[in-house]
Amino acid sequence: MESEWGNQGEIESDFQKLLSIKAHKKLMIFSTANQTADVMERLRSLMVKYPFHLAGEEYMAVDITPQGVFRYSFTLPNNGRLDAANFAHLHGALDCPRDHAVAVSG
């Protein structure tokens, strides 16, 4: 598990740590104001560039925003390089109390 409440570059740096660790489940928790799509695109790009994946590993990403909590999941279909990393957006946003979202992202 990794977490980052910083800028996009820091989120990417922490996510790269998850790539090299071998585990069945990998979780990235982060907080963005309104950059969820940008961050998820960068995470997809990092996964495609990484050459040492193991089939069956599941990557989970959770973005805590003032608009809600957004959850994503992707299970690796094969060993080695990926052609694509298509995270599934899980069940829409969960409610997050506004004061809580501001506290964790600030």
Written overview of the protein:
The protein is an alpha/beta fold and 106 residues long. The chain has one domain. 33% of the residues lie in helices and 25% in strands. It contains three helices and five strands. It has a five-stranded mixed β-sheet. β1 (2-4), α1 (8-20) and β2 form a beta-alpha-beta unit. The longest helix has 14 residues, at 36-49. It starts with a strand and ends with a helix. The model is unreliable at 100-106 (pLDDT under 50).
Task: Supply the helix-strand structural class.
Answer: alpha/beta
Largest sheet strand order: 1-2-3-4-5
Give the termini distance in whole angstroms: 21 Å
Query: For the residues shown, what is the average pLDDT?
Result: 86
Radius of gyration, in angstroms, nearest whole number: 14 Å
Q: What proportion of the residues form beta strands (DSSP E)?
A: 25-35%
Number of strands: 5
Low-pLDDT regions: 100-106
- Sheet of most strands: 5 strands, mixed
Total count of domains: 1
- The arrangement of helices and strands along the chain is EHEHEEEH
Residues in helices, as a percent range: 25-40%
Shape: globular
Please work out how many helical segments DSSP would assign. Answer: 3
Compact overview of the structure:
With 106 residues, the chain is of the alpha/beta class.
List key phrases describing it.
25% strand, 106 residues, 3 helices, alpha/beta, 33% helix, 5-stranded mixed beta sheet
Structural topology:
Blueprint: E1 2-4, H1 8-20, E2 25-30, H2 36-49, E3 58-65, E4 68-75, E5 88-89, H3 98-105
Parallel strand pairs: 1-2, 2-3
Antiparallel strand pairs: 3-4, 4-5
Helix pairs in contact: 1-2
